[in-house]
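PROTEIN FOLDING TASK:
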Amino acid sequence: MSAAPSTDVVDWELSIDELRAVREHLPGLVLPSFVPDGAPAEVPVDPLLERGMLVREPVAGVASWADALDRSFLLTLALQNAASIVVQVSAWHPGGAIAHSTVIEKSAASHLTVRTSTGEHDGRATVQGTVIDQAWSTLAGLIPHLEVVWQITGSATISTVASQAVVDAAARRDPAVLAAVVNELHVPADAVELFRGLAHPVQHGFRVKAFTAELGAVFVADWFGTANGWLRMSVGLRSDARGQEVTPELITDAGTVTVTAQTQDEIGTELLGLIAGLIKERDV
């Protein structure tokens, strides 16, 4: 944590209650939904003064702390309210969970991260401001560390019904049952190894959603960490079913599941492409 701004990065760490207290004293500020609602119990301001978020003690009873907050901190936090591009991340691992929002406006980026450790009710928040060039590396740094025993490769798409059957059969750890399912549902051999990974305990996850002011939601992706590496999973429809009203029956009858094996570096590269593409579309 650095209270003193540098050229490209400024960042501050605070408790969730401290963050909520700041929000309550900035009328009109709306933070992402992963920051708990409501005002906290009285929060001492001395730690905020010591860590540089407050440059002077606020007047007792005043509704707004805007004049007392460090300008870089105030602007970085306020950027969460208004921007052309928003990327949200949810991640989890055996040690805890991460909720994150990156907001991009012109050449600046604001990053708000809440980390909660397993067994804790409260977490710690980080507010960080960077130049736009560092947005993707901030996102890539949120990917949970994964111990890979054997990295698999490839990509496969099968029906929703087949995917559930293969995962259930693999979980039973009976080769005869799995072989019967694969034969009955005509599952390609290259798909079996990929979907088998989802039958084992999955203790790591990484989800990315992106939005723009003009188009709304433009991207969503889910990765699950296994002993065989990261598996990206997406759900779709067969080509002949696209354009129809999506119902539970249609998903059962015509749904597809695609699993793609990726390394952590490959996920990072995809995030780089995502940010570059969003900025390019914005600046056209």
Summary: The chain is about 30% helix and 30% strand. The longest strand covers residues 216-226. The longest helix spans residues 264-283. The beta strands are 9-15, 85-93, 96-105, 108-117, 124-131, 155-159, 204-212, 216-226, 229-237, 255-262.
